[in-house]
């Protein structure tokens, strides 16, 4: 008699990450592969979203409303609201520096290669 194997069925929670990864791979292939303009737009959108999320997180961690931060920075509440909008792309260096100073943060900007360089065989 062959030994009995215990097989365990995966729960939907365990299958979800794999399913999401497959879907993301399909979407990536369908919408971004071979389309550098879309990749640039995606990178820009991610950067804008990151800036917005960082401003929001720092402001809320400091216990400030948009209007309170605006008063410290010297702008309006609607300007802070715009800066916290992930679709907003008009961030100025001066405003980001002022927000950083008001929240006790230092702004860092760095340059990174557009794509990884391939090693040339010797």
Search tags:
single chain; 122 residues; mainly alpha; 434 Repressor (Amino-terminal Domain); 5 helices
How would you describe the overall organization of this protein?
This protein has 122 residues and is mainly α. The chain has helices at residues 12-31, 36-61, 66-73, 77-83, 93-102. The relative contact order is 0.08.
Cα(first) to Cα(last) distance is 59 Å
Count of extended strands = 0
Tell me the β content.
under 5%
**What Rg is obtained from the alpha carbons, in whole angstroms?**
23 Å
SS-derived structural category: mainly alpha
The first-level CATH class of the domain at 18-102 is given as Mainly Alpha
Q: What is the overall pLDDT average?
A: 84
CATH architecture of the domain at 18-102: Orthogonal Bundle
CATH topology of the domain at 18-102: 434 Repressor (Amino-terminal Domain)
The CATH superfamily of the domain at 18-102 appears as: lambda repressor-like DNA-binding domains
The shape is: elongated
Percent of residues in helices comes to 55-70%
């Amino acid at each position: 008699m062959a030994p009995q194997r215990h097989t365990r069925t995966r729960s939907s929670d365990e299958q979800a990450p794999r399913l999401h990864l497959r879907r993301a791979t399909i979407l990536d292939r369908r919408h971004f592969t071979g389309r550098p303009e879309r990749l640039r737009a995606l990178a820009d959108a991610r950067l804008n979203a990151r800036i917005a999320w960082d401003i929001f997180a720092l402001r809320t961690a400091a216990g400030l409303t948009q209007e309170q931060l605006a008063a410290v920075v010297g702008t309006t509440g609607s300007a802070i609201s715009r800066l916290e909008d992930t679709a907003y792309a008009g961030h100025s260096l001066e405003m980001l520096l002022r927000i950083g100073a008001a929240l006790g943060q230092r702004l860092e900007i760095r340059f990174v290669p557009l794509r990884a360089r391939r090693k040339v065989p010797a």
